Amino acid sequence: QVQLVESGGGSVQAGGSLRLSCAASGGTFSRYAMSWFRQAPGKEREFVTAANWNGGSTGYADSVKGRFTISRDNAKNTVYLQMNSLKPEDTAVYYCAAGQRGLYYSRNKNDYIYWGQGTQVTVSS
């Protein structure tokens, strides 16, 4: 069993930056593929970025590529999402997620079985 807790959300102006953190406990963090998804009001949860067990393989949604960066520190059981050049359309609740044992990398939300409660990111124009 894995527990995930996101932090670092808040309200910023367009063009600003935020760094989200996701602290994991209750499992062997280094064995899990990790990801970030987001969900805006009235919309489905969508993929943002993901990383394999050591962060050596990463991928990004086209909408955030070049602006967001995922990283992980297995010694601290934490995954990060650095968000730069934020846009109003980035406004959403951001969730981190951990995959099933054996998952290497996935952009599919159905491949992730452990989810945090989310942290709100609001970007004003």
Structure explained in plain terms:
The strands form 2 sheets. Strands 2, 4, 5, 6, 9, 10 and 11 form a 7-stranded mixed sheet that branches. A 4-stranded antiparallel sheet has the order 1-3-8-7, with no helix packed on it. The mean pLDDT is 95. The chain is built from no helices and 11 strands. 0% of the residues lie in helices and 50% in strands. The N and C termini lie far apart (40 Å). It is mostly beta strands. β4 and β5 (46-51) form a beta hairpin.
The best one-word shape is globular
State the end-to-end CA separation.
40 Å
Helix percentage range: under 10%
Q: What is Rg?
A: 13 Å
Our count of helices gives 0
- Report the major sheet: 7 strands, mixed
Q: What is the number of strand segments?
A: 11
Q: Strand-and-helix sequence, N→C?
A: EEEEEEEEEEE
pLDDT below 50 for ≥5 consecutive residues: which ranges?
A: none
Structural category: mainly beta
Average pLDDT over all residues: 95
Query: Proportion of β residues?
Result: over 45%
Keywords:
7-stranded mixed sheet; mainly beta; single chain; 4-stranded antiparallel sheet; globular; 125 residues; 50% strand
